[in-house]
Amino acid sequence: MKIGVISDTHGLLRPEVAPALAGVERILHLGDVGKISILDELNRIAPVTAIRGNTDREGACGELPETDVVLIADRYVYMLHDLDTLHLDPAAGKFAAVLFGHSHVPISTGARACSISIPAPAARAGLICR
Questions:
Q1: Rounded distance between C-alpha atoms, residue 10 and residue 32, angstroms
Q2: For residues 33 and 50, is the Cβ–Cβ distance under 8 A?
Q3: How confident is the model at residue 126 (pLDDT cuts 50, 70, 90)?
Q4: CA-wise closest residue to 40 among 5, 11, 82, 80
Q5: 3-state secondary structure of 53
Q6: Predicted confidence band at 28 (pLDDT cuts at 50, 70, 90)?
Q7: Whole-angstrom distance, CA of residue 10 vs CA of residue 38
Q8: Is 125's pLDDT higher than 50?
Q9: DSSP label at residue 91
Q10: pLDDT confidence tier of residue 122, bands split at 50, 70 and 90
Q11: Which of 109, 99, 98, 106 is nearest to 124 (CA)?
């Protein structure tokens, strides 16, 4: 299954996003959506699971969950916006990965006995990790 991961759109969906996500079967938005219309646009590409970020305080974006757990290819993935708010042991929770946004710095590590990664912010040139 091909998954698209995006975060920190801050109400702006750059033209490069749709081609970068072409062919994905699911999109995970890791918060700081900015406008609910961003999720509507992404849903035209593939079904979206989204969480709220620290700037998603009002309206429909403020109603998004703070965290979520998704099942992808029989593996659980934990979604949150700010890694500093992670209050569980991903390995003990048997999560295959922890995905987060917020820092605007792309990283990927297996340091906690599971994969922890962040996509580059979509509101900047770095764009998307998939």
A1: 5
A2: yes
A3: very low
A4: 11
A5: coil
A6: very high
A7: 9
A8: no
A9: T
A10: low
A11: 106
- Contact of 81 with 32, CB cutoff 8 Å: yes
d(CA 65, CA 16): 27
CA angle 79/82/87 to nearest 5° reads 75
CA-to-CA distance for 30 and 128, rounded, in angstroms? 11
17 close to 127: Cβ distance less than 8 angstroms: yes
Structure tokens at 38: 């961003």
Give the pLDDT confidence of 68-117 residue by residue, as tens digits.
999 998 889 999 998 889 888 888 888 888 888 887 665 666 544 444 44
Three-state secondary structure call for residue 81: coil
Residues in the chain: 130
Q: Which two tokens stand for residue 73?
A: 């290819």
Q: Which of 52, 11, 58, 3 is nearest to 34 (CA)?
A: 11
pLDDT at 118 over 80: no
d(CA 35, CA 12) in angstroms, rounded, equals: 8
